[in-house]
Amino acid sequence: MGFKPSCFDCDLWLKDRGDDTGFDYICTYVNDFIIMAKDLLKYMMSLQGIYNVWDIQEPADYLGVTYVGSPDDHWTINFKKNIKEGISSLEHITGMLWKYKTPIAYKDEPESDNSPFLNNEGHHLYQTCIGMAQCLVTIERIDIAFALTSYNR
User: Which domain holds residue 148?
Assistant: First the structure.
């Protein structure tokens, strides 16, 4: 169909429309995909001719992202569901998360922490929590980036 994989993500395929209006995109994930194009039915029919495609619908949720809009209008996305799930997972792992009005607790200096070193299991759990928090920063929670960086050190 003329799509080429993105050099940034092999699951993102793009095709220049050739009329200075931009690109059409197909994103794949395991056995799921989403098409963002001016004439998406053309691509959908081509894919249906090759693959067993079922449950065709406008996007509502895709990989934890909520899509709101219509084909004739603009689409918006939000990550609230993904953020809630991430925070819930972190609370499950750590027992609780504290709420502060600033990015990091007042007078908190993680670099001078004197708590004992973690064992292998604790180290892995800490890395898991840092990775989950980094994902939250990437998708929408830039406000926690400073605190995360200091704990990451």
Answer: 80-152
